[in-house]
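Consortium newsletter contribution from the modelling node. Members have asked for a concrete example of what our holo predictions look like. Here is one, prepared for the uridine-5'-diphosphate complex that several groups have been discussing at recent meetings.
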Amino acid sequence: MVTGGAGFIGSHITERLLDQGHEVLVVDNYYSSTRRNLTHLLDHPNIEVMRHDVTFPLYVEVDEIYHLACPASPIFYQRDPVQTTKTSVHGSINMLGLAKRTKAKILLSSTSEVYGDPQVHPQTEDYWGNVNPIGIRSCYDEGKRCAETLFFDYRRQHDLGIKVARIFNTYGPRMQPDDGRVVSNFIVQALAGEPITIYGDGSQTRSFCYVDDLVDGLMALMATDHEVTGPINIGNPVEFTMIELAELVLELTGSSSQIEHRPLPQDDPARRRPDISRAREALGWEPKAQLRTGLEQTIAYFSELSGT
Ligand code: NAD
Ligand code: UDP
Ligand code: UDP
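And here is the predicted structure:
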């Protein structure tokens, strides 16, 4: 089962699982996605798609759960912040209850946002983070922190087979063109010849992982023995400023868009880069795609989508 399976990352996991011969139940309420991400898979004999909000109980029989349901882009998770927290907390309780009853393994797509605006750089899994509990990002950050707590308490109380992945910024085909994240925004703007919107002075950094690499990492984590619970950082440790990203997108699209600066949103982390030593050791995993190559694939996707 893939919760959030119609979303950007979830649709790639679903596709990969089907390719490997698994039967896949996709559970999604389309809060931050559309059916478009799955249309190419709907004729597959091994897929079943269910519209369902994970904040409500769900009784199905499954043996492995990728629990991804949760809006991930700041504009989507801030649109209905109470629902975002409910999705992480009530949604995780329900999926953990389901995993407990069915004895399924369950993987949580947690996030680098549990580190908040980090004071330790690069971020290691033993860093407890610097999160504002009452800011506009808290519904997402604290929701995921509580989801992690629930996962580890179900492990301690019920010995559940849990896997917690802390995902760092991931990009690729099937991001929503209007979801406001930096990679999709810059590409959509560049292709349309509209101004590239850099928030703040653009010196803030992120480390971008191509979706195929991320899916490899999540699947390797799911395949580990019962002892391996994480949390494990999954991301690409190569760090870029937003100015560098904008320049690369302009170069690769050949766009003549101008750069425009907009106010920096509240609590926007100044820098972010994963330490992936644990993933290398426990999973034998590291990302392969360079930003340039991954962006080319993503630009091709958005070009096709917009008909440019
Ligand atoms: P996305 O918004 O494309 O996908 C999330 C999916 O969850 C969507 O299809 C959405 O409709 C669904 N969803 C939301 N609330 C739901 C609910 N209550 N019930 C059922 N479905 C619901 O985002 P994504 O980038 O694919 O992110 C997937 C997961 O990975 C999320 O949990 C996110 O927090 C995590 N993550 C992503 C990134 C990233 O850079 N993409 C980074 C860190 C963590
Ligand atoms: N739950 C679910 N599907 C299941 C089993 C449980 O959605 O197959 C939900 C149910 O709503 C429950 C929650 O998961 O409240 C937590 O389940 P658990 O067994 O841990 O707790 P309890 O049922 O004792 O509250
Ligand atoms: N950002 C930007 N222009 C945009 C969208 C985002 O400069 O059009 C910045 C944003 O302020 C942040 C970084 O890019 O510093 C990454 O933003 P995103 O929303 O993609 O992810 P997150 O902040 O959750 O890492």
